[in-house]
Amino acid sequence: xxxxxxxxxxxxxxxxxxxxxxxxxxxxxxxxxxxxxxxxxxxxxxxxxxxxxxxxxxxxxxxxxxxxxxxxxxxxxxxxxxxxxxxxxxxxxxxxxxxxxxxxxxxxxxxxxxxxxxxxxxxxxxxxxxxxxxxxxxxxxxxxxxxxxxxxxxxxxxxxxxxxxxxxxxxxxxxxxxxxxxxxxxxxxxxxxxxxxxxxxxxxxxxxxxxxxxxxxxxxxxxxxxxxxxxxxxxxxxxxxxxxxxxxxxxxxxxxxxxxxxxxxxxxxxxxxxxxxxxxxxxxxxxxxxxxxxxxxxxxxxxxxxxxxxxxxxxxxxxxxxxxxxxxxxxxxxxxxxxxxxxxxxxxxxxxxxxxxxxxxxxxxxxxxxxxxxxxxxx
Amino acid sequence: xxxxxxxxxxxxxxxxxxxxxxxxxxxxxxxxxxxxxxxxxxxxxxxxxxxxxxxxxxxxxxxxxxxxxxxxxxxxxxxxxxxxxxxxxxxxxxxxxxxxxxxxxxxxxxxxxxxxxxxxxxxxxxxxxxxxxxxxxxxxxxxxxxxxxxxxxxxxxxxxxxxxxxxxxxxxxxxxxxxxxxxxxxxxxxxxxxxxxxxxxxxxxxxxxxxxxxxxxxxxxxxxxxxxxxxxxxxxxxxxxxxxxxxxxxxxxxxxxxxxxxxxxxxxxxxxxxxxxxxxxxxxxxxxxxxxxxxxxxxxxxxxxxxxxxxxxxxxxxxxxxxxxxxxxxxxxxxxxxxxxxxxxxxxxxxxxxxxxxxxxxxxxxxxxxxxxxxxxxxxxxxxxxxxxxxxxxxxxxxxxxxxxxxxxxxxxxxxxxxxxxxxxxxxxxxxxxxxxxxxxxxxxxxxxxxxxxxxxxxxxxxxx
Lengths: 379, 465
What we know:
The complex is a heterodimer of chains A (379) and B (465).
Chain A: H1 2-12, H2 14-21, E1 27-31, H3 38-43, E2 47-51, H4 58-63, H5 73-84, H6 88-92, E3 95-100, H7 103-115, E4 121-125, H8 132-153, H9 159-182, H10 192-202, H11 207-223, E5 232-240, H12 247-254, E6 257-266, H13 281-292, H14 303-315, E7 320-326, H15 330-347, E8 351-356, H16 363-378
Parallel strand pairs in A: 1-2, 1-3, 3-4, 5-6, 5-7, 7-8
Helix pairs in contact in A: 1-11, 5-7, 8-13, 9-11, 12-16, 14-15
Chain B: H1 6-11, H2 16-21, H3 23-32, H4 37-50, H5 56-73, E1 81-85, H6 92-100, E2 104-107, H7 109-118, H8 125-132, H9 144-154, E3 163-166, H10 172-185, E4 189-191, H11 208-229, H12 237-259, H13 268-280, H14 284-306, E5 317-320, H15 328-336, E6 340-344, H16 345-351, H17 364-375, H18 381-392, E7 399-405, H19 409-412, H20 417-426, E8 430-435, H21 445-463
Parallel strand pairs in B: 1-2, 1-3, 3-4, 5-6, 5-7, 7-8
Helix pairs in contact in B: 5-7, 5-13, 5-14, 6-12, 7-9, 7-13, 8-9, 11-17, 12-14, 12-16, 13-14, 15-21, 18-20
């Protein structure tokens, strides 16, 4: 598709472009998870960039100098990239913002603060429960973030600017939502890998350019003939799907699986809801980014997300669910024990668990297991 | 008539009269725990080998753990409403519930199982395996305390709780494993949520909203407990809940003074027994523990006067995080290698470094939260490491054995930073030691020996230069 080609070209020159833009604008790097409202950075004329690279086991060796092995490899990758400078987006960021969710993110935040104090950073907490107190805490966190960004960029975030930024981001979310819904038939020409790559690109690309690309992509997808052989319809879910962590998706596709819907806490932008542009905008951002979005697996209880998965499985008429979490992300591991029964009871479909530490050696056993799972479903 | 368990219980500080009065309960407990005459013989040998039973205070401490175990195992039969909390925990809420009604039994059951089925009976493995088979599999760095708790419940050794207080302010695993209990048994729970979102360099400062949030969560949890358990939190519950704690802490302060002696008068194996009790029991265990400490402190005063210790005089002195909760061999290794351990993190925090909360709060939740934030343990990683530095000032130390629990993410965050920080700030050598503090199957004493021995030899050489 032309949209994807155009996007690739944009990303290839993105770092060079950012280096030029850096002379006039601040670059705000932030960590994955979907709790950083990009609107705040955009409203003070800064450029938000999310650290989303991972999938290569080699970087974990770099991280090993700063933390033990027993953390999620995505977050160890971030430690590796931060300290080695091997992800240039870390080098280009003027300020690094870390919304702290669970202890895997916290260990990254500690490394940032202790080992790389020369990098300016800002942290704020994301509660693990959804209630009035928690919403208020998150709300206060993003108010502090707003103040920090205003001071750091020297640009006041007015209501008008914030409203414009929200409208821009709402448009992006809306387009992702529409593209996702186009896949409901199961025979859409939109592949899951393309959808995820679009998401990853949206964390790095210029916002307005990205919206153009999404519009173009949607139009092209609508004009492309549906697939005649659609494969086994799958729901793909888990903790994190990083940029360049595509091996599981490749194996699933090669084995005859067809992922038609995904849910990931880190790596996919929460796109199901829009932010209200009326009334208190900061409160609206808190409502949308914290309360309205589907919670991640480390929330307690995790029932909201599990019920959402059941709904997705039904709405998208899937034949099976592949649960892909990264090693040592304990919240997901524990849920993967009791969710299969819930899912089976509510939808009748089976669930299959895959775990990864970004090791190439995993490919062979993964392929055998995925093929077996898909064969089981066909029978 | 004498029974097969009498000798062991007597060794563990039970008076004959106590054994006679509790015969029915002891028997019922041992049956539920699948412990028979052969287990008593093995336990007798195990306790004599690894605990300092020449001290009556130590024997009484073991007895306090056994009494807590009996009350835990039989809590349902006793008609109690059972509340479990996760370890480590902000103790205030659990203590307040316990102080509000005689009908409520509050405990950290995993710690009780570790200290009894592990430290006394050396039979924890089947319980851990049951936990592994029920949602917390091996090979994934899952918390072995939680494996013990789930295993104990699944095997029917300890009762299913009526209510759970989840430590959502500290670890992610604990709250998720509480979800597992709910999935299995429908147990209602209150998540006491908090976020350790300190920026490096913040400590000792913290934002007031951290106290407001954590405090509000504690208040909500207490309210929910009232509804679920059908009790009212007594107006003086906070004050009452502090009665035992104050006494216990008082003894810990005296103990810190005694541990300054050279040679150190008490093994860290026994130190762990008493430290952990205060974080695990809100009932008979802690009350009996206080009596045991009274005896123990007097015995240690005698030892200090006589110059008796558990290592040679002049042995290198190191601080550790804490002793092993279920396998005394791992803790004993330090002393076997010739290291004296006068101080642990817990002893330092309870009896050494003074914490003076700032600000004034009116609700129980906020008062508790303010204290915890000031103390630092639930503030963030930096606060924990700084605590070692401060505590080290209490004792004349020669080094640190800075353990980190590989399967406890909040502790594992300090795996590398604590060594660098402490070496730079104190100039003392630091051994960074990966351990599983609750399960010795993968991190046994033998697997750690080479590292500890080498470090000990280095310290000895340095000291004798």
